[in-house]
Every structure is written in C-alpha cells, then in structure tokens.
Write a structure and sequence with these properties.
Elements lengths: L2 H7 L26 H8 L5 H9 L1 E4 L2 E5 L5 E4 L1 H11 L6 H4 L8 E2 L5 E9 L1 H8 L4 H20 L5 E8 L4 E10 L2 E5 L3 H4 L3 H4 L11 E7 L2 E2 L18 E6 L10 H31 L2 H28 L2 H19 L2 H7 L2 H22 L7 H15 L16 H9 L6 H19 L4 H7 L4 H11 L5 H17 L3 H43 L12 E6 L3 E3 L2 E3 L2 E3 H7 L10 H6 L8 E6 L11 E3 L5 E8 L17 E5 H10 L4 H7 L3
Antiparallel strand pairs: 1-2, 2-3, 3-9, 4-8, 5-7, 6-7, 8-9, 9-10, 11-12, 11-17, 13-14, 15-16, 16-19, 17-18, 18-19
Helix pairs in contact: 6-7, 7-21, 10-11, 10-14, 10-17, 14-21, 15-20, 15-21, 17-18, 17-19
C-alpha cells in the first residue's frame, strides 16, 4: 500500500499532528509532563512518580542511541547496531569481531569514545534564557541565547565534574529546561553477536516486519577500573510479550519536525530532502564499490555501508511522506486553525504578529545559503581526520575567549565531552578516509561550481582526488598522543602545527565561520524568534499539555503490543525463533551464522523473537528498553516499520509501529547458542 493510499484510507482523522493534542498512543513525553491520567484511562495502569523516577534512573543515552542498566553490576543493554562501531574499533584484520562476534572474550574492552549519561534532574530556565534574548534579532539573538545557556550550564555543573549540564530547547524556543546528567566515561564491551545475527535480513528487511533480528549488545559501566554498582537498574523479564499488552519505551528520540510550519516543510520537501537523498544514494554506490574491492575493504566498510543505507531509507521515507498531498493538507489545516484562533483574540494577535511570514522569509535565505553553508561548515564528508582537525582548530580559537562568548558547542560545560571523544583511540581506515573526503570535495565543486570562491578555496589548483590523497596520507592525526599535544598546547600549538590536515582546516576556517555567521543572522536567528512566538501562541490556544518535538533528550512513550493491516492482510505483532530458519536462504543477507544451525536442536523455536507495538519512536530511540507496566525490561527497540518513517512529521496510530527484540530471545540465544550462562544468571539476579 502506498503512503498516499494509506492516508486516503484514514481520511476520517487517524492522522493527527501534535499542533493540537496527542491522540491514541502518540507522544514522546518529557518526564516532567508525562500524561499518567491518560494512560490510566486508556489502559488502567497507575504510573506514579516513583515509577517514573525508577525508569528514568535506570536508563540513559549513549552516542547516537539509548540504553538501560539491567543488573546491579553495571551491565547495560542496547542494540547491536549501537555498539557495532565499538566492535569495529576493537577489531583487526586478524581478529574480526564484527564478523565473528564478541562472544566469549575474557576481557571486557573499553569502547573508544563511548559514554553513558543518566538524567538526574530537570529545571525550567525559560525565564533566564528568554530574558537574555529579549529585544534581540538575527545573530544577536543566537549569540545572546547561546551565552545564557552556556552560563547556566557552567554555573550548574561547576562543582560536580562527573555531571553534565545541558540546557535543552523545547517547542522551538517556547521553553528551555536545564537537564543534569550523571556521565560515565568508562564503558566497556561485554557481548555482541555476529554481524549476520545482529543485522539478519540486511537492508531488504530494514524498516520492515516480520523481522528475525537479534539486534542487541551488552556493555558495562566501569569506575576506577571496576564494574560500577548500579542499584537503580531495571528488572530483567523474559516473559512472552502478548498482543494488547501495555508497553513503554524510555529513550532519547533524535529529532522530529512535527511543529514545523508549512513553509519549513515545503523547503524540506522541495530542496533539502531531495538534495540529501541524492547525495546519500551516490555515496552508497561508491561505498558498495569500495566494499567489493577486497575482503579488507568489506571488513572496514560494511558497517558504514549499513548505516548509510539506513540513513537513505530514513530521508527518502520522509521525502515520500511530504510529497503526499494528504499530509500537507492536514498540516495546512492545522496551521490555518491556529492562525485563525490567534487572529480572533486581538490581544494575542498583537503580541504574536505574523511569525509564519517571518519563517517563510527565512526560507528564501535558507535556499540561497544552504549549499555553501552546508559545504563549508560540514564534516568533510564524514572523514574522521578532517573532524579531528576541525575540532582542534575551532577549540583552540574558542578556548581563548570567555565561555559565554564562544560558539555554543565549545562552552566550558561541553569541553570535557569534546576532549573525551577527541582522545579516544580509534583506528583510522585510510581507504575510507580518502573516499569520504574525495566525495565531499567533488560534490562541493559540482554543487557550488568550479568558479565559486569557496570551491577555489577548498581545492586551489588540485583535484578532489589529488587533494584528498595528499591530506589523508600526510596527516598524523590518527595518533591520539599528537591530538592530545595539540589540545593541551592550545592555539599556539595548533597554529604552529605542520600537519597537512590542520593547515588545510586553518585555511578554510575563516570562510566557514563567515558563512555560519550569515546563516545564523539570516536563517537561524529569524526562525528561532518567530518559532518562539508561534510556540507562545500555541500554548495560549491549546494549553501546555502537548508534547514537544524530539531533541535527543530523555523521553517516555507508551502503547501496546500490536500488529497492523497491510494491503488488506493482518500483520501479526510477533515473530518466533523458528521463523529465522524458515526465512534463511543460505545467501546474504539471509544467511545466519553456523552457530545458529549448531544450536537449533536445543532452541525453543516458539520463543518470541521480535515484536511490534504502537510506540511513538524515531531515530535515537535505538537501544531503548521496552518495558511492561511494572517497569520490567521485556525487550529493546531497534527499528520501526516503513510507515514510521513519516513519523518525523506525523503519527498515524493505525500503522506507525515500533519493532523490538524480545528479552526472551536474547536470553535463549545467550544460554543455548553462545554458552553465556554467566550473563543469563546476572540478568536474572535482580
């Protein structure tokens, strides 16, 4: 069923945007605004403050994903694809943990750059931040807001270096909350299955269901070289999930755009999303070619390719949803309703003005600036070496300033996190580095044209191929000791460095900063000011019982174990272990490892493998624990169905579905396939 037909079939009103009130199981709720009464009315469950506090303290965020504490000895559950980068970093050409799994290692090895942050408290600081920006516009507003949040973060965490303070913007500037996290920087890999198990079905099964994917990994928090006691851990429960059962997900959804105006969605539909999907598609082709060139290229590039394919599906799914007139019609009606209600209240209308036009005007500037800004302020196509150089160059210059005068990402409160990531000993794969940098430079020349001043600055007289080869092969930034010396030496050391990647970034940074300044003045600042007015008007009209867009901050969602109807057929909500063997073809990506065939006779093939639910999730929720009404861990979310990709803009309770791997399947595999009875006993020692 196409999305257009699907939405036409639900024209009676199942598609509801967050501009008014959440319907059914919709909502990525903050912990200080969770609708316990609504859950009680719908499911009969009592969710009190003690319950909320318990699950909040037992969950956390890791880089790009979510996780949960599942034993009193610091054991942490997340997804396989959330630890695959760590598995890759710990692998070598001789020991390939990605292919063979990190199964029975006697040593729990530290994951480079890995951390876990657990939310401790929430404080409303809206008044302080808005007062700092009062009367300011454009880049002045951006600068003042950044300085205010930096000062709040620094003052709140100065006495507790183990904590991280973050001021988070909600409702597009309608509210600001100070979130205080306890941060753990020593996180080690305990267990990860083979790649063929953790990503069974590959790209064809991605965002689809039924699924037979053991997408889980285990980490452990350490302190002072020993496992960290975690008394607030969640109880492990391998009971079978049942259709209709109330379930929850606690995690950190990355971002949604449900509060965006029509003009912003039109810009995404007509410009940014098509541009992004084309780039991702072409880069995917280059990566496929790269992985086919040698077994070693396949080893270092396979996980990167899978992540890229996942991203392509996400952005293409968003584009498809916005090209359906049904979606845009609903969004236009929602916006028109809010504007009419504002106009009907003279006092509110006078205070609000016309922020929708202000945002529409900013879209014109965004279109003009998007290509040069995104090119010059980008990440070098994902090159790790370029990222190191840019961080060192920017940090060196920004640290010479007062914290409140810096770019927000280099405030005092954020420097420890930057330093932790910068010093992590990651392997540098030169072939991938050159591919990424070369692709970025070639696309810059293609998009900006060869005559553009920024292109000339980026390339000089060299070709993308020559320049990327020279920079990658000549750079020594893969050495953590050199990065530390440059970080500790500050601006003097960076300016004196002869590393070609450092010299290159120094040469282009002034132009990149100038474009960022213009972007903030003409796009970010006007949009932020106007969005704040719309948020205030929305509160005045609809109240503050609506949930904010996702911001990679802790949220809790609720729903039920449920399937859906697809092309007139019912999709059951659960799969079973035996289905993996039925689905296996012996050829990638449907070729389970030999370990599964060896253990087949011992397995309970009726064990629930994966299950779907009505939980409202998005990217960043990966690894979130799926909980029952008691707060027990019954699984881990790892995906959504294809319809959930439109969830960036809307939630449709009839078809939007989350997909989780069950605790029962994890335990069955640990015990009978991988012989890790020690982990099974630890999980069940709650």
């Amino acid at each position: 069923m196409t999305l257009k037909k699907l939405l036409a079939a639900t024209a009676a009103g199942s598609l509801v945007f967050a501009a008014t009130t959440a319907s059914a199981d919709e909502g990525m709720w903050t912990f200080d605004k969770f609708p316990s009464a609504k859950v009680k009315a719908a499911y009969g469950a009592t969710i009190d403050q003690a319950w909320l506090d318990h699950v909040r303290l037992g969950t956390g965020r890791i880089p790009g994903c979510s996780a949960s504490e599942v034993s009193g000895q610091g054991l942490v559950l997340t997804n396989y694809h959330c630890v695959a980068g760590c598995v890759q970093a710990l692998s070598t050409a001789q020991v390939d943990y990605l292919k063979d799994g990190y199964l029975k290692a006697t040593e729990e090895k530290r994951c480079p750059g890995m951390y876990m942050e657990v939310l401790q408290s929430i404080e409303d600081v809206t008044g302080q931040v808005k007062a700092a920006g009062a009367g300011k516009t454009g880049r002045d507003l951006v600068t003042a807001t950044g300085a205010a949040t930096s000062a709040i973060e620094k003052a709140s965490c100065a006495a507790t270096p183990q904590n991280r303070c973050q001021v988070i913007n909600f409702y597009n500037g309608g509210q600001y909350k100070l979130y205080t996290f306890h941060r753990y920087d020593d996180v080690r890999l305990v267990f990860a299955p083979e790649f063929k198990t953790g990503f069974f079905g590959g790209d064809p099964d991605n965002f689809n269901f039924p699924r037979y994917n053991l997408d889980f990994g285990l980490l452990r928090i350490y302190k002072d070289g020993k496992p960290m006691p975690t008394p607030d851990h969640l109880r492990w429960n391998p009971e079978t999930p049942k259709a209709g059962e109330l379930i929850f997900v606690v995690g950190n959804p990355g971002s949604t755009s449900r509060d965006d105006t029509v003009s912003e969605l039109e810009t995404a539909r007509d410009w940014t999303l098509p541009h992004t999907t084309i780039l991702l598609s072409e880069r995917r082709g280059r990566l496929i070619r790269f992985t086919e060139e040698s077994p070693e290229n396949l080893r270092v590039g396979e996980d990167v390719l899978n992540g890229l394919e996942n991203g392509f599906k996400v952005f293409n799914g968003r584009l498809i949803s916005l090209t359906q007139e049904d979606v845009m019609s609903v969004k236009r009606r929602e916006e028109a309703d809010l504007r009419a209600r504002v106009a009907a209240d003279p006092k509110l209308a006078a205070a609000t003005g016309d922020p929708w036009k202000e945002i529409a005007d900013a879209q014109i500037a965004q279109h003009d600036l998007y290509l040069p800004y995104s090119t010059m302020e980008g990440s070098g196509g994902g090159s790790t070496l370029f990222g190191y150089a840019k961080t060192l160059v920017r940090a060196a210059a920004e640290r010479e300033k007062a914290s409140t005068d810096r770019l927000p990402e280099y405030s005092d409160s954020r420097l420890p996190q930057i330093e932790h990531g910068l010093m992590a000993p990651r392997p540098i794969e030169l072939g991938l580095e050159q591919l990424n940098l070369e692709f970025w430079l070639s696309k810059a020349r293609e998009g900006l044209t060869a005559d553009d001043p920024n292109t000339k600055l980026l390339l000089g007289k060299e070709s993308p191929e020559e320049l990327s080869d020279r920079l990658v092969k000549g750079s020594r930034l893969g050495d953590p000791a050199l990065r530390k010396a440059l970080w500790d030496g500050g601006e003097k050391a960076v300016l004196a460095s002869d590393d070609p990647m450092i010299r290159y970034v120094l040469s282009i940074d002034p132009a990149a900063r100038a474009l960022r300044k213009e972007w903030e003045a003409r796009v970010v600042g006007p949009t932020a000011a106007a969005a704040s007015k719309i948020a205030t008007a929305r509160f005045a009209v609809y109240g503050d019982s609506i949930y904010p867009d996702a911001t990679f901050s802790p949220r809790i969602t609720y729903g039920a174990v449920a399937g859906w109807t697809e092309r007139g057929h019912e999709v059951p909500p659960v799969t079973h272990l035996g289905g993996l063997f039925d689905r296996a073809t012996g050829l990638p990506p449907f070729d389970p490892p030999q370990s599964w065939y060896d253990a087949k006779a011992k397995l309970n093939l009726d064990t629930v493998f994966d299950f779907s639910g009505t939980l409202d999730i998005t990217g960043g929720n990966s690894g979130s624990p799926t909980l029952n009404a008691r707060g027990d861990v019954i699984g881990a979310v790892f995906d959504g169905n294809i319809h959930s990709l439109g969830g960036d803009y809307a939630y449709d309770p009839k078809v939007n579905r989350s997909v989780s791997v069950s605790a029962a399947a994890i335990q069955e595999a640990l015990d009978k396939i991988y012989g890790r009875g020690d982990l099974v006993r630890e999980l069940n020692s709650n």
